[in-house]
Write a structure and sequence with these properties.
- The structure is a single chain.
- α3 packs parallel to α4.
- The chain contains 4 helices and 5 strands.
- It is of the alpha+beta class.
- The strands form 2 sheets. It has a 3-stranded antiparallel beta sheet. A two-stranded antiparallel ribbon has the order 1-2.
């Protein structure tokens, strides 16, 4: 078979069609109009979910790179002194105040999940991009029984410490 060159008429304007994401209902209608089965619709929907998840992951990586170009300054706002040791550290409030504003500019939000299993407290920071991709960092540890804290203060100390460092991570 020989290649042929076909000339397109130049007097007709070419239309550009923007692709819009198909909804599940659109896919069902299309499949049913074209003799498709429900299994084919499920497969198309799964492909759509996979494509959207990949796009969300790419956007997450791109926006995180933009965030990291100009990271926020975190102020060490609390002085700690005990047993001859003295230092400054950033409180959870100082960390979140600085980071949350910077992350929000790039479409990120965060939340924490906290769990307790026996004597171990587990804190997970979930960083989510506006397109839905999330990444997690988890720390776990025992209650902080240093100083003169009661049981609840010991748990709160471990949770606060873990929240601060999972968000920083």
């Amino acid at each position: 078979m020989e290649n042929q060159i076909v000339e397109m008429p130049q007097d007709k304007p070419r239309a550009l069609v923007a692709a819009t994401p198909a909804t599940p209902a659109d896919m069902v209608i299309y499949a049913m109009q074209n003799g498709g089965t429900i299994e084919q619709v499920r497969e198309m929907m799964q492909l759509q979910r996979e494509w959207e998840a990949d796009q969300a992951r790419k956007a997450y990586v791109s926006d995180m790179a933009e965030f990291k170009k100009n990271p926020p300054e975190i102020i060490k706002d609390k002085q700690v002194a005990f047993s001859g040791t003295q230092y400054m550290h950033a409180t959870l409030g100082a960390v979140t105040e600085a980071i949350v504003v910077g992350l929000a500019r790039h479409g990120f939000s965060h939340r924490w999940d906290t769990a307790q299993n026996g004597g171990v407290i587990e804190v997970t920071c979930i960083l989510t991009h506006k397109l839905g991709h999330s990444e997690r960092t988890t720390l776990s540890g025992a209650k902080d029984d240093s100083g003169k804290k009661n049981q609840i203060q010991q748990m709160a100390s471990t949770i606060t410490y873990s929240q601060r460092y999972t968000l920083l991570a």
